[in-house]
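Input chain follows. Return structure tokens only.
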Amino acid sequence: MNKLWFKRMVGVLAVLVLLASCCLSPAAATDRDELQSQIDEQEAVQDSLNSDLDDLQAEMDVINDRITQLNSQIAEYNDAIAQYQSEIDSLEAKIEEAEKRQTELEAQISDTYELLGDRLYATYVAGSTSTLELLLSAEDFETFLTRLELVRRISEYDTSLVSDLQADIDELETTKTQLDADMAAVEQKQAAEQSARDALASDRAEELEARSLQESKQNDIEQKITDSEELQAELEAAMEAYDNDKASGMENGGGGAVDNADPSEFPVSSKGMICPLQYSNVYVSAGWYGYANHKGIDFCTRGATGNTYGKAIRAAADGVVYSAEYHYSWGNNVYINHGDGVYTRYAHCSSIVVSAGKTVKQGEIIAYVGNTGNVSPRPSESNPHAGAHLHFEVWVNGTRVNPEPWLP
């Protein structure tokens, strides 16, 4: 965690340095190279911020996993606590029933004692002062035996009644004592579960606070990415404006595209243009408007993947290099001024071997086929030459025209 935090902090510091160094407005850029440099810096800023965002998301995933695990454990403790509470409720009901029964038995003993007292009092009132007198007053032996048996049974009944009631009370006392012990044991277990649950709840609160902090950091980084993307969009718009200015300088054109420019109307056509790729296996992979807004012709060479990459690109006609530079969409590209308002463009080059102002002859090598700028499919580590092709355009008085009539 500490290493990841340190890595992220270093990344944030690097981003801040980049932001401080490249937060110039597009209007402050004085040339195309400066605009491209600022765009590259913003891409570096976004890469660094996205890397920090990935690190934060990895930490967030770990935190979320811990919170999920803690929630599961807390749920288990809550189930155990609820089970113990059910046992406690049952024990409390049993204790309450035992106490109620004990009260009833104590009332019965009290009633029995009161009954015995009433009987002794009645005997006294009747004039018999003792059981012995009752027996001796018998008129004959049979009456004596009858009275003796009666006295014995009454005594045994009274003794049994009181003894049974007292035994029931003693048994209830024992039951209550056991129930109280069981209650204490269950309450102790429940308290232990509650303590463990509260500790987990505290851990979960810390994790939730950590997640909230991570979310705040993520929001900050996402805002910085948004700001950087907005700045990059402004820079790219400035780059587009720069390129449009370049195009508008091509002999008063409006930068549009037409299908029907007649090459015979321009002196350059007297020499004729040649295909910029002078190979026997050249083919057109995408023609004029071969897909939406495609204002040119794409050339490739047949063969295995990457066969087109690195092929020599030649000037379609004599002329002077108008510009040779990188464009965020066209990649490395070359404009050649052939005179009379006619220009040709060669885009997505892997490298350029001419510079602005150089006079070139038809067929002279000016660059090599590549996949820079916006190409499809995009190159990758496994296929670095993917998307390699030559995008070729013809401009007449600042307007792109269909190149097909200009070529053999």
